[in-house]
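User: Structure please.
Assistant: Input sequence and predicted structure:
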Amino acid sequence: MPEKKQDDSLSPVPSQTGQIFEDQNYAHDAVFGEITEEGPNYRNVGWIGSAALMMKSQIGLGVLSIPVAFDTLGIVPGVIILIAIAWITTWSDYMIGVFKLKHREVYGIDDAGGLMFGRIGKIFFGFAFCLYWVFVAGSGMLGISIALNSLSTHGTCTAVFVAVAAIAGFMLSSIQTLGRMSPLAWIGLVCIVTGILVVTIAVGVQDRPSSASQDGIWVSDYQITGSAPFSQSITAVSSLVFAYSGTPSFFSIAAEMRDPRQYTRSLLICQSVVTAVYLAIGCVVYYYCGSYVASPALGSAGPTVKKISYGFALPGLLVTTMLVIHLPGKYIFLRILHGSRHLTANTVTHWVVWLSCTFGITVIAYIIASAIPVFDNLVSLIGALLGTLMSFQPMGCMWLYDNWNAKDRSPRWIMMVCWSGFVILSGTFLMVSGTYGSIVTIIESYNASGGSAAWSCADNSNST
């Protein structure tokens, strides 16, 4: 009987939110417990909606720093490194789906860490998961403040715009389920891609980027290979890692799918589209702008195009911030109410705990966004310190955990052991060296220009 229940748990949960099912196996989930008409249906994301959520968790803040990373690395090394990161993270993302089907009780990366490393692993990865998404939420708020500054021509104090971003992020992130968020994910995805395409087309048809000299003949100074020092180069690589580090969100997405067996289909769509967009945006914008590319990249084609592109991208930035506040909030919420009827019932306790979680994440992210108001430096630091840790090492360990004791140690098994070890080692190298490079770059930036003051009113939309 226990084996039968495990098999039944693979069955997709019907899409009607709140429906009570005669077969209780359809209404029971290993993570969320009983799904009834008394509360939200946490298993209500189809494979198309899952693809949208995956793409939105990837195509968000990281894409805006890709042309700048290419400026540091050079266009050829930049493309090669981007494709390598795409390949490794696609495998890592695939392992999440495989691990989820084998271990149905897994909701987040902390559950995987608990299985592999015990209580210490669960606590460590749970803390890293929350810290990572809080930092990403902070950079999301910073991105929104840049957009609002651009649209209003610095209409008011930047600190006010960051506060507005925090309020909007809290309100949207408090939507209870990813199933209800998936339509917003589509809207946000289309909007941010449109904004980026506007800039891409504009830099291709304009005579020169807005920050370049407007006198005489201008030729792009893009470089085939870069010559930046190690600290700057590894910081650029960290920015590319951050562009693919939506990986930890895929645990939550898989957990809320109606049929997790369709996870791989959603993943392949996501990674194919994301990689194509990143390559197109990075190569075209950097080729035409060279060293005059702006950070974020939406400001590369002049004030008018910047306003148009940010006008399109703003909903996408809002949806990104919504998702990255929702994810750690949902994690904490589940840990507090796990095993309680309040988890899946719309009780007063349910709503008080849920709103307290999203509000607490929002406040911490707001403090981070205001205290480190430098977009590209913040993105690089997040990608190096936490993005790599969430996207490389755990997935190599997950394969080894499930397959190390296999009786058939074939050449394929040996190859996969070597691959998993490579993913773990490369992730560790990128994490350590990238964090060092990001810290050095931040210190150099502050020493050179004094940096941007915390809770500053200064316009943060004119970085080049």
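The longest helix spans residues 109-152.
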